[in-house]
Amino acid sequence: MIKKLLIANRSEIALRIIRACKELDILTVAVYSEADKNALHVRFADEAICIGPPPSSKSYLHIPSIISAAMITNADAIHPGYGFLAENSEFVDICNAVGITFVGPSADSISRMGNKSVAKETMRLAGVPVVPGSIGIVPTIEEAIKVANETGYPIMLKAVAGGGGKGMRLVNDENELKRFYPITRSEAESFFGNPDLYIEKLVQASRHIEIQIFGDKFGNVIHLNERECSTQRRHQKLIEEAPSPIVTEELRKKMGDAAVAGAKSVNYYGPGTIEFLVDNDLNFFFMEMNTRIQVEHPVTEESLSVDLIKEQIRVASGEKLTLKNKKPLFHAIECRINAEDPYNDFRPSPGTITSLHFPGGHGVRVDSHIYQGYTIPPYYDSLIAKLITFAPTRDEAIKKMKRALEEFIIEGVKTTIPFHTKMMDNPDFKAGNIDTKYLERVDWKNL
Ligand code: MV4
């Protein structure tokens, strides 16, 4: 078993991992940038090491500093959390080379899912439904025109090194393709260092539904049902829930079996997520695989009453999976509370929290690193709290969320709380009628 774990991350996820370690009797090492010297993860960990100046590139992303911090403190494992180094296969190779356990999947699983075209082909060969389009990349404009004609317009032109909405373009006809192909290619080259593109048919009016999978190092893989993540804005998720209001037991089994087959085909271990686009006829298509624990993992935890982080650490230590698939016990909803001004295009609003009160009570969970007097630095993600409620039914979970949002007091910075309060009263949200374009069509203030 792991004895001492270094957490190569900050904010609420660093706290989440420290809490799991305490319950597993594992010692913890926090790392922090100069901007985070007053952060809670520094205070809650057994040891803390400063790894550099505020910019992530010089601290939380700086591999030599993080490896050195692990060596100096004799940590035998590193948990990357999400973001930063969580899906960096070179970092995994370096951990392996110096004898540190990386709490996550193999470098091979990460790199195969990191190339979106390789990922798609891998899933297709494993029997997972994929969106029709090119098989592999389209290396020339001539090839792109040929594939687009066979696929039928409108199409999506996507960078193999993209993902999460970056490096993709909607193309309506051949003229647009001729115009956009070279632009998208050179953008992909300059953003990701890889110009390769592939083509997919456009899937319309769709939902983003993802399956949580979990594997161990003995080849066992299970799924832990779905999360509905369609309430997004500019590819930023705002609300997630489990189960999805549109997923039937039959669809859950189909998507779950497909996700497990896909994960097995890359010898996946640890927690991972297979993202699907689901159309109005409940056809589902593989989009991407996230080879990490995700921000929204608590909705799965509260829906099933399990601890995914403790299981992740156990599996990384070489233990067998203890979790099993089961039907949802509760309906769980997560609202992402960001230090952003929802009345001003969700512009980041860093600053000092002058007054703070967390909601509580039955069926309420708050994962957060903020405290009264804490100054939110401007250098990192604006997520400051995740508010999760859970109840036997979706209606009750929404009611509870509304009540908890009303109890939540954060003064000194603007937050997304007013947006969430509005959504909990929105008839479309209450009816489960949300797709990924919903917040593009309407202004949330008029809901
Ligand atoms: C698509 C699509 C429609 N058709 N692919 C956006 C993020 C990346 N994971 C893939 N994305 C999309 N791919 C085809 N063939 C629409 C999206 C998309 C989207 C997907 C999930 C959640 C929100 C979205 C918002 C806009 C576009």
Give a quick summary of the entry.
The protein has 447 residues and is an alpha+beta fold.
Per DSSP E runs of 2 or more residues, the count of β-strands stands at 22
Which structural category fits the helices and strands? alpha+beta
Separation, N- and C-terminal Cα atoms: 51 Å
SS summary, helix count: 15
The share of residues in extended strands comes to 25-35%
Annotated CATH topology of the largest domain: D-amino Acid Aminotransferase, Chain A, domain 1
As an assembly, this protein is: single chain
Ligand roster: ligand MV4
pLDDT < 50 stretches: none
Task: Indicate the mean pLDDT.
Answer: 98
- Sheet having the most strands: 8 strands, antiparallel
Q: Radius of gyration, rounded?
A: 22 Å
CATH class of the largest domain: Alpha Beta
Tell me, briefly, the overall form.
globular
Structure description:
The protein is an alpha+beta fold and 447 residues long. It has 3 domains: 100 residues, 3-Layer(aba) Sandwich (Rossmann fold); 70 residues, Dna Ligase, domain 1 (2-Layer Sandwich), CATH 3.30.1490.20; 240 residues, D-amino Acid Aminotransferase, Chain A, domain 1, CATH 3.30.470. It is 34% helix and 28% strand. The chain has 15 helices and 22 strands. An 8-stranded antiparallel sheet has the order 13-12-9-10-11-14-21-19, sandwiched between helices. A 5-stranded parallel sheet has the order 3-2-1-4-5. Helix 4 runs antiparallel to helix 5 and helix 7 packs across helix 8. The chain is globular. The model has no long low-confidence stretch (mean pLDDT 98). It binds ligand MV4. Ligand MV4 binds next to strand 8 and strand 13.
